[in-house]
Every structure is written in structure tokens, then in C-alpha cells.
Amino acid sequence: MININTNRLTQITILAVITLVIGYQSLQSMRANTWYFNALNILKQPESTITPEELELADRAITFATTQDPSQPHYWQLSAYIKMLNLAVTSEKNNNKLLVYQQAEKDLLKSLELRQTWSETWIALAQVVSYQDGPTERVYEYIQQAKKFGPYKFDVQLGIIQIALMNWQKLSPKYKALYVAELNLAVKYGYKFYQVFDVAKQVDALPILCLSLKFGPHFEAVRTRWMFKKHCN
Length: 233
Hints:
Layout: H1 2-42, H2 52-68, H3 73-89, H4 97-114, H5 119-133, H6 137-149, H7 154-166, H8 173-186, H9 195-202, H10 206-213, H11 220-223, H12 226-232
């Protein structure tokens, strides 16, 4: 009888401990999710209107989220995005660009460790590493992973085009072939293609893009539109 009661008490104790652990983990997850959405809500406004102070709040919020629940890949991806956006806003005052790139790379690798099938994360990683090292073989491999999981995603094509334009003088023949192929794919997305002009302008490569678009039947429709005439004539 004593043994039976002891066994029951042990089972009840174990069950209580398990319940407490699950409850604690659920609470941590809920808190982390709240911080994540706090950060996300700040970023819903146009990028041009976000202040450095708001970005600091967003960075703090996503740091709390990753600390309380480090198992969510989208938390780490957003953390890297906020770091890069903050750098873009404060680039003229920031003397630690390399450190920011390294931190963003670490966040993206952590995200991919948790989920490897997000093409947007792979192309973001390729971009961040290219900022540090240029169009290396490692960057090319990351691009191939992005294409593997998102072969028809415009964001992937746009990222590849940006990497190519930003590093044009250093591109190998296979990178230039990749650039041409992605440009041909991106033009099929109609009005979205105009984002390519914005990217080219950001990296001071409009002349290269314009020259690329002046030839070939794929870009015939683009050459007749106002965006081309505005930037390329």
C-alpha cells in the first residue's frame, strides 16, 4: 500500500513538474511573440519615415524576442533585417559597418539553422556577405540555395541583380551570366520590375542597368515606358 502511494506521489510530482515546464515555456513564447510583433509594427510604415529612435526600439524588441524564444527562425531573420535597415539610416555616422554586417550574418545563419527552406533568408545572407567580401564563391553558393528554394520569387531575382550591380567590376563570367538570366526573369513581373531601377540607383549602377536594358527583345516593353526614359535617356 505504501509503495502504491509512493508511486502515485512520484507520478503526480513528475506530472506537476512537466506542467510547470510547459506553462513556463508557453509564457516565454507568448512574451517573445509580443515583442516580435512590437518590432514588426514599427516596420510597417514606409522605410523613409522610420526614425533612428524607432529602429532602436525595434531592435530592442526583437532582441527581447530572440532572448526569450531563440527557436523561431523568423525572429532571427527580422533581427538581421533591422540591423541592416538601421545601418542604412545611420550609414554616414556609423563607423562599425563591418561589425553590423557580421552580426546580421550571424542572425541569418541562426535563422537558416532553424529552417533551411526560406529563399528570402538565403538571398539576404548572400547580400550581407557580399557587402563584406564581394562576389565570392561562398556568396554564389548562397545564391544557388536561394534559387533552389525560390526559383521564381522576385525578391530572390532582385537580390541577385543587386549583388551583381554592386560588384560589377569584380564579377566573374558566371556571375555576369547569372545577372543576365535573372534580369530576363525579373522583367516578366511587370510593374514590380521598376524596383530594379531603385536598386541600381541605390548602388550607383544605373548606367550599367540602362546599358543592359538597351538590347534584347525581353526588354522591348521596358524601353517604351516612362521609368526607362526617366533614368536611361
